[in-house]
């Protein structure tokens, strides 16, 4: 993905935060963990304060599906 | 195969969205607790794991809007069938009740504070000078963290702090206090233009669902 194709920074950060939580936190049962690595390519760059919500992800996903 | 998203209390209905690999969401009941699951494809499409992770997270966030209390399950917990899942869930029942009570009515707010690369480097011409400068730098950082963390900790029902960056923490906050938390973070960011401050949420209480929380 080129720089120009990246989604807006707020959406990247929201996605990164969500993925971090989904993969690393939460209740652990005795089932088999099937995940080894998720190929998520995200970065933090140059932002000051950012208040984001998961609602931005729905929009991001919808835009991706429509592309 | 059963894919598990979350446990919930007071869940009136399932989210109107698909789960992992477009699987239909289903509810399982363990005593008074609901579990939300789906049956993903046994042969997922290549490269679908990224979408699966996001789909899992979006289901959990939707549940957070529909239930009184939600305990997200870590991605990747799968069971061969309903019976295997029921056995595992019943073993945790007492623990799940306690955790649901703790997060009831609350959401998670994430806060990260970092400095630009090199901003925290300490230089000195002597060993003693270096140690003194390092101590002064750490003292300054402690004061910065206290100014941010202290009020947030008082607003929160629980807190998980990690060692990443200047300050990385998750706060379990009653829904009514989310605005106060965000206002405090914004004021802190305005007072410290030299820092990068990231505040995200409200999230389902991931950091307070498992054994890692305090």
N→C terminal distance of chain B: 32 Å
> What is the subunit organization of this protein?
heterodimer
Beta-strand share of residues of chain B:
25-35%
**Topology pattern of chain A, helix = H, strand = E:** HEEH
In terms of structural class, how would the helical and strand content of chain A be classed?
A: mainly alpha
Number of helices of chain B: 5
**Helix coverage percent of residues of chain A?**
40-55%
What's a concise summary of this model?
The complex is a heterodimer of chains A (67) and B (214). Chain A has one domain. In chain A, 42% of the residues lie in helices and 9% in strands.
Task: Explain the overall architecture.
- With 67 residues, chain A is mainly α.
- Chain A has two helices and two strands, in the order H-E-E-H.
- Chain B is α+β, with helices and mostly antiparallel strands and 214 residues long.
- Chain B has helices at 49-66, 82-91, 93-103, 127-155, 178-191, and strands spanning 2-9, 26-30, 33-38, 69-72, 77-79, 106-115, 158-162, 167-174, 195-203.
- In chain B, helix 4 (127-155) runs antiparallel to helix 5.
- The radius of gyration of chain B is 21 Å and the shape is elongated.
- Classes of the chains: A mainly alpha (67), B alpha+beta (214).
- The A-B interface holds A 13-15, 17-19, 21-35, 38-40, 44, 46-54, 57-58, 61 and B 4, 6-7, 47, 49-50, 53-54, 56-58, 60-61, 71-79, 84-85, 88-89, 91-92, 96, 99, 110, 114, 182, 185-186, 189, 193, 196-204, 206-207, 209-212.
- Strand 1 (32-33) of chain A pairs antiparallel with strand 5 (77-79) of chain B.
Question: What keywords describe this structure?
Answer:
heterodimer; A: 67 residues; mainly alpha; 42% helix; B: 214 residues; alpha+beta; 5-stranded antiparallel β-sheet; 4-stranded antiparallel β-sheet
